[in-house]
Amino acid sequence: MKAARRSGGVAVGVGSGIGSQGVKGFGGRERIGGGIERGPRPCARMLAWIVGLVLVAQPAAAASARFAAGGWGFDETTLAGLPRSTIDASTPFLTAGEAGAVAGLDVELQGSTVLCVLDAAGEACRAASPPPSGSFSVLVSFTVGVPEAAVSGPFTLMLTSLVAGRGYGPDDVAIPLDALAPASLDTTAVPGFDWTGELTPFVRVRDVSAAPRDVYDYIGWTVEDGATVTFRYDVPAGLVGNGYPQFTANAVPLVVPEPGAALLLGLGLAGLATGTRDLREARR
């Protein structure tokens, strides 16, 4: 039997028909065993956590992320090069979704259901309805809100799955990880779309809470309350039915280091180890 993946209950942020894409979250926190809520990572494990971040951070980005078979998490072979951190069963798994979709969300995403369907030249937004024909790309932009201080300071917001029941399979949706932002973008046709002029860099989170049987990989962004996230997804084979793909989102209270920061941290740890060894040799 396959190990249970992270899931908190009822999904939120789902619309219907054209323009219903949006980012979904879960309606409850992850619980274990007899209903005990997962708590924060013990401080005593912090050094090991930092060393782990140093070892897995990489300098280059992959081309496009693809969802894993079954739709939960991403295919790890498409994520090589992204800076990465690892979470386990002790890491709080926070709910996220469109603001106002359901009460009690840890993280609210304002504007996640407003789509900018790019024209053929990639220089203008068109409305989600009428639907595009053939392959197309979509920009999604939303503002992050933390309504009840579920997490403070920077944290990681993640896309965790491709919603089933929409007709889309893992091979039907690609999320470019190193896409270039349009030099100029006309958003007149989509008044509610918040264009900041840039795409938000991705990070990677590996979930080993169900290991060794199952390991899941997510992609996301380093954010904080009030931040704006913008990303693009591609649908190479075109629209399925009259609905756009939908995703789920969750958050974890940790920050994946940038490759440069991880390298500096690694050098600092190496220097600390060398200095300690030299001091011990001098005392002999």
Please outline what is shown here.
With 284 residues, the protein is α+β, with helices and mostly antiparallel strands.
Percent range of helical residues: 10-25%
Question: Cα-atom Rg, whole angstroms?
Answer: 20 Å
Count of beta strands: 17
* Uncertain residue segments: 1-5, 8-22, 24-62, 261-283
Order of secondary-structure elements: EEEEHEEEEEEEEEEEEEH
Largest sheet: 13 strands, mixed
- Principal-axis shape equals globular
Determine the mean pLDDT: 77
Content-based structural category? alpha+beta
Continuous helix count: 2
What fraction of residues sit in β-strands? Answer: 25-35%
Topology summary:
Layout: E1 11-12, E2 23-26, E3 31-32, E4 36-37, H1 46-56, E5 64-66, E6 84-87, E7 94-98, E8 107-110, E9 115-118, E10 125-126, E11 136-145, E12 155-162, E13 174-176, E14 203-207, E15 216-223, E16 228-235, E17 247-252, H2 259-283
